Amino acid sequence: MLKAIALDMDNTLLNSNKEISVTNRDVLRYLNRKGIRVILCSGRPFATLKPFLDELHVTKNDDVCVCFNGGLVRLVRDHTVIKANTLSKEQIKPVYDLVKENGFKLDIVAEDEVYSLTEFGKSSYQTMIPKQMPFIDTTFSKVPAKLPIFKVVVAGEPAMIDAASDAAQSLKQLTVTRSRRTLLEILPPNVNKMNGLKAALNFYRIPREQLAAFGDEENDKDMLEYAGIGVAMGNAIPEIKQIADITVGSNDDDGVANYLIDYFQISPTAIRL
């Protein structure tokens, strides 16, 4: 029997309007009340996850979330860090050089703010991130030397991200993953959602066999393979559907909730309580 549910956010739990549907919300609130651990596992910073954690009532003292694609695992109620991996400015210099050489655009993401390198032109990343994260327009030389960096991102049209992904394969010491068709993320070594979930499950003392993980994109692959049940959304890319144990409805059709209702045999009356 499942004891934990790990959920990617964009295009998985969130619909096309970037909202949690009423059905998804009510089912997850119900399972949370019943003691099933609901773990948001996203590339997003914590500040942009918090409103959704509040909406789902995932706010207990020991509730955990996974941010930055596994780069930060922390308690929801306070600033207790279970696991954190960051990059230094020196470590991302090869990324800066690659972007400069190829004409891409770059944003540097710290825990509480984003440094947007306007020397390459403004990227579209700010349109993807809610207003909880302040953006600072700057140049690479002005980024604080000792800033702990959770990730750097290249945002743009899918064709540009295809090119950026190919070019980034030269960054052998870093983790490169695509979290959307329009977003490439460069992370510290060995950072991924699977390793973030390992830390979360170790904290809860829950074996991975009792975990279901839901996702749709390249950066969800390792956690779906790791989980006892890997669930691909109906709108997932083909590679994710291929490795998943099951494919459910899309993010606009309450795919998460409908699977959980069936698995846990939840009655409509119970959900509304």
UniProtKB/TrEMBL annotation:
Keywords: Hydrolase. One of its GO terms (cellular component) is cytosol. InterPro entries: Cof, HAD-like_sf, HAD-SF_hydro_IIB, HAD_sf. One of its GO terms (molecular function) is phosphatase activity. It comes from the Bacteria. Transmembrane segments: none annotated. Gene3D superfamilies: 3.30.1240.10, HAD superfamily/HAD-like. PANTHER family: HAD SUPERFAMILY HYDROLASE-LIKE, TYPE 3, PHOSPHOSERINE PHOSPHATASE. This is Cof-type HAD-IIB family hydrolase.
